[in-house]
């Protein structure tokens, strides 16, 4: 029987989960997990190290599928390391991208010397072609092939090898875009058209989405090609699948063609793991080495957005319009902050303590790793406080203490007070992300369970939950590799969209979109096991913004769904005439006959852990000094191993696992569930 492997590359660690393929409903497959330090100079080196550890003595030729979550696309946008792109548009609209759109936030509001960020394409690399199509799809000005060849010659002369074509109203009629692309491909290596990437209204957003696909597509294609070759060197010839931003899985070939769909690939996998934790209404809380991410799960399904922003200041991972580059593609609706175990604590010029967003990452890493890092980090602070021990990697108390002393001295406080201040500040920073996805949307978080995972999440989860009055925290088994496990529950899927104002024949339009999406997956939309979900973008007549609701041919039912969704989003009810703006399909097919609920908490309960360092292991049950201000500071607290903890224990206490530590503060109790998840419950005041 073959295996499937999930690989999640984080800022500090690379996580690998191996599972027996074709797990039948009601049975539990063989699992193995591995956690190794990420190798930023070559991410594939870390992947190979983790995969080799997880395989052990298993035959690599028996691996049938590798599912990968990657931050390659996100990092390329944030660090501006994508390829040079030429933007080709309709005559008269060359300045759309250079003018751009930017919202001043935080300190920018008061900066008299404010300089907006550079546009995704330099003004000189924007080109016009003679043509014009109306919003209804009528050709107003025929395409002039000579203008296209002139632009193509200049693009080639400049050595630009990637072009993004976004013509006015091409969603209504893509003929001109396809003709332009055909001419450009004679001299330009990579050409992407908006009608292929995301044919939706709103010119600026459609253009930036197309540009980002052209910007990162060659990088993604090269990376996945090299990954395939390197895996083949160790005997794995299985197909590679990539997690997309919306929580589905696509082939490596499709990921290279539609790279923009993978920008939120990494964070999406963890939300799927949280959704499978057994709580229909939950808040996913994923804290790794560099960032913390939150998402609301309602009715067992994560919230999905159809527009997010990348690379913006104060955007909370795409939450704030006008900060960063807008991307029009389905994505799990996350809020993200630069707060993780490797986040560096520092003093600003005024002497105030700050934490993050800069992270020590895996190299040099926190001071306690003993790899050359000297700056104090969140991990160092938690070690000084007695919340951590050597588990997936040996940790040095001495080095952590020396790093914290660099803060304690200037602040004039004892080492433990400085460490706890770091702990509190980073918890408050993460709470801001929870606030964004709940309170700011009118959602009362007290009715939700907080599902914590990531290497650092369980250490801070109870403190974060307490700020909102959340009374239940759930820590899944092997939570340190939960994102990699979530990859195994993703199913092959892809989306298609088309803007049409009140299309006269929606059924025919949906059928066409479903056929295109099925072609992307290499299947037939009518094949057994294939699911096609349909939805529409609806707005009140005369308004400019719309909301997505499930499709119904019954107009009264469709209106009712829109009115209900409108009340959920905006907090008040409204009635009126509606109009349909866009049509969407999502085609999903199981990658195998795996039960999607398997491969998360239930199967991880039987997993075999492989540590990042040979011989590293957690301490046994006992007591150790830990700092809890509620009980007066340092004191002896019980330390439990998850696998052998009692039926119920009361805080203060520490529960250790292979890759993470669960802190149970005073006023909280912890129980071990049948699936080996730890459930923390807050005592009522």
Automatic annotation (TrEMBL):
Output this protein's name: Hydantoinase/oxoprolinase family protein
GO molecular function term, any single one: 5-oxoprolinase (ATP-hydrolyzing) activity
Instruction: State any GO CC term.
Output: cytosol
| Record InterPro entries | ATPase_NBD, Hydant_A_N, Hydantoinase_A, Oxoprolinase-like
**Biological process (GO) annotations?**
glutathione metabolic process
The membrane spanning regions, by residue number, are: none
Describe the location of the Hydantoinase A/oxoprolinase domain by residue ranges: 206-493
Q: What range(s) does the Hydantoinase/oxoprolinase N-terminal domain occupy? A: 5-187
Q: Name one Pfam family in it.
A: Hydant_A_N
Query: According to the lineage, what is the superkingdom?
Result: Bacteria
């Amino acid at each position: 029987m073959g295996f499937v492997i999930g690989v999640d590359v984080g800022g500090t660690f690379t996580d690998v989960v191996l599972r027996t393929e074709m797990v039948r409903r009601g049975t539990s497959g063989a699992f193995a997990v591995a956690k190794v330090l990420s190798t930023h100079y070559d991410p594939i080196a870390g992947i190979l190290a983790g995969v080799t550890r997880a395989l052990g003595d298993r035959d690599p030729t028996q691996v049938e599928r590798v599912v990968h979550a990657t931050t390659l696309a996100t990092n390329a946008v944030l660090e501006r390391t994508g390829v040079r792109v030429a933007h080709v548009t309709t005559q008269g609209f060359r300045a759309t991208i250079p003018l751009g759109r930017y919202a001043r936030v935080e300190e920018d509001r008061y900066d008299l010397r404010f300089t907006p960020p550079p546009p995704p394409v330099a003004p000189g690399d924007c080109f016009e072609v003679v043509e014009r199509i109306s919003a209804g799809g009528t050709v107003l000005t025929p395409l002039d092939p000579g203008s296209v060849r002139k632009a193509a010659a200049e693009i080639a002369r400049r050595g630009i090898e990637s072009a993004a074509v976004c013509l006015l109203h091409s969603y209504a009629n893509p003929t001109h875009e396809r003709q332009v692309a055909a001419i450009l491909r004679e001299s330009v290596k990579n050409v992407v058209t908006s009608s292929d990437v995301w044919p939706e209204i709103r010119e600026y957003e459609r253009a930036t989405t197309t540009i980002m696909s052209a910007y990162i597509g060659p990088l993604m294609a090269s990376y996945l090609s090299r990954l395939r070759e390197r895996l083949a060197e160790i005997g794995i010839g299985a197909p590679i699948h990539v997690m997309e931003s919306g929580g589905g899985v696509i082939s490596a070939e499709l990921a290279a063609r539609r790279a923009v769909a993978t920008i939120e690939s990494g964070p999406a996998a963890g939300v799927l793991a949280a959704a499978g934790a057994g709580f229909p209404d939950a808040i996913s809380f994923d804290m790794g080495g560099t960032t913390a991410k939150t998402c609301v799960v309602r009715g067992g399904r994560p919230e999905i957005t159809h527009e997010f922003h990348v690379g913006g200041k104060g955007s909370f991972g795409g939450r704030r319009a006008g900060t960063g580059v807008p991307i029009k593609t389905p994505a799990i609706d996350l809020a993200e902050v630069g707060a993780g175990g490797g986040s560096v604590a520092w003093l600003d010029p005024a002497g105030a303590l700050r934490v993050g967003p800069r992270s020590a990452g895996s190299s040099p890493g926190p001071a306690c790793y003993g790899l050359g890092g000297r700056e104090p980090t969140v991990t160092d602070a938690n070690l000084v406080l007695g919340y951590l021990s050597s588990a997936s990697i040996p940790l040095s108390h001495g080095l952590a203490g020396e790093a914290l002393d660099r803060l304690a001295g200037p602040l004039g406080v004892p080492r433990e007070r400085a460490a706890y201040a770091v702990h509190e500040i980073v918890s408050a920073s993460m709470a801001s992300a929870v606030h964004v996805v709940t309170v700011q949307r009118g959602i009362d978080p007290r009715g939700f369970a907080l599902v914590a995972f990531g290497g650092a999440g369980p250490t801070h989860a109870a403190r974060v939950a307490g700020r909102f009055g959340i009374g239940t925290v759930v820590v899944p088994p092997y939570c340190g590799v939960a994102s990699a496990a979530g990859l195994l529950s993703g199913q092959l899927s892809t989306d298609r969209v088309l803007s049409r104002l009140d299309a006269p024949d929606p059924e025919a339009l949906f059928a066409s979109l479903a056929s295109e999406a099925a072609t992307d997956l290499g299947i037939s939309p009518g094949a057994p096991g294939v699911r096609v979900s349909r939805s529409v973008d609806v707005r009140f007549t005369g308004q400019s913004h719309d909301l997505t609701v499930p499709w119904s041919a019954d107009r009264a039912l469709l209106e009712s769904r829109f009115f209900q969704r409108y009340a959920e989003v905006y907090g008040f009810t409204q009635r009126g005439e509606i109009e349909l703006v866009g049509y969407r399909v999502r085609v999903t097919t199981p990658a195998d006959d795996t039960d999607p609920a398997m491969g998360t908490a239930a199967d991880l309960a039987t997993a075999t852990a492989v540590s990042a360092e040979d011989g590293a292991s957690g301490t046994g049950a006992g007591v150790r000094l830990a700092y809890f201000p509620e009980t007066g500071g340092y004191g002896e607290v019980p330390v439990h191993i998850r696998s052998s903890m009692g039926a119920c224990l009361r805080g203060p206490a520490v529960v250790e696992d292979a890759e993470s530590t669960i802190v149970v503060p005073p006023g909280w109790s912890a129980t071990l569930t049948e699936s080996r998840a730890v459930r923390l419950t807050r005592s009522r005041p």
